Amino acid sequence: RSVGGSNPPSGTIFSDSVGEMVMRTAFITGGTAGIGEAAVRAFVGAGWRVVTTGRRADRLAALAESLGGAVHTLAFDIRDAAALDAALASLPADFADIDLLINNAGLALGTAPAQEASLDDWQTMIDTNVSALVAVTRKLLPGLVARKGAIINLSSVAATYPYSGGNVYAATKAFVRQFSLGLRADLHGKGVRVTSIEPGMVETEFTVVRTGGNQAASDALYGGVNPMTGDDIAETMLWVAQLPPHLNINRLELMPVNQSFAGFAVAREG
Ligand code: 8X3
């Protein structure tokens, strides 16, 4: 990628103001699968150091082993505030200066209409997609401001276009989008970039998790759609992160070509 001007050709390893070569560090939540894992691979491939988090320690270990010393893994539940503090405090010096936060960890649970949905599922989505995301962001913000870093938040087309069964999932993603825009306002003049990435259908574990492990339902949903992949979104994140520093993508909405907009639903009486 050419970013032109006085910016580094790859955008990853560059000379700072005193001419020292600097490697940038990304902190990617939810690196055990899907978009998060693809992002870890993409950023390491582009020369970044990466810290990544996830609950499944075995998957993190395998990821780190396949990528070598450029990755530092933190195995904990992002919803656990004390574990988050401990994980951040444990970062080795080489990985402690975060330049880019990618808030990727999140999930959808259930597709039932609101009047039938599980309140526990709703709480889990709010805890993960909203509460954990703001906690990680708040804790890393002082460092991101100091380094004029960047934040990429994973929202969804569900933030903008309601669909039945989306209820709380969609609302959490609308929160992520609006929080991103609010961060931009608060960070005015600080040189910190913030982007809300809002994908439509991406075939990952997303629908298997949402349906409680129903692989057939996931296969049926994505069958024949030619959906986006985790790599598609990871490449987009990398592009956003490596734009020249004076450019901010506020919101970026993506869909596979075969996904577009539903019509309005109309119920008929009688
Ligand atoms: C989910 C997007 O289009 O698969 O975030 O419902 S979609």
How would you characterize the overall build of this protein?
The protein is of the alpha/beta class. 39% of the residues lie in helices and 15% in strands. The protein has eight helices and nine strands. The chain has helices spanning 34-45, 57-67, 81-89, 119-146, 167-186, 206-210, 215-222, 230-241; strands at residues 13-15, 21-23, 25-28, 49-54, 71-75, 100-103, 150-154, 193-199, 251-254. Helix 1 crosses helix 8 (230-241) and helix 4 (119-146) runs parallel beside helix 5 (167-186). The protein is globular. The chain starts with 12 loop residues before the first strand and ends in a 16-residue tail after the last strand. The site of 2-hydroxyethylsulfonic acid has 5 residues, from loops.
Topology:
Elements: E1 13-15, E2 21-23, E3 25-28, H1 34-45, E4 49-54, H2 57-67, E5 71-75, H3 81-89, E6 100-103, H4 119-146, E7 150-154, H5 167-186, E8 193-199, H6 206-210, H7 215-222, H8 230-241, E9 251-254
2-hydroxyethylsulfonic acid (8X3) binds at residues 156-158, 200-201.
Give structural attributes.
single chain; 270 residues; alpha/beta; seven-stranded parallel beta sheet; two-stranded antiparallel sheet; 9 strands; globular; disordered N terminus; binds 2-hydroxyethylsulfonic acid
Summarize the structure.
39% of the residues lie in helices and 15% in strands. It is of the alpha/beta class and 270 residues long. The N terminus is likely disordered.
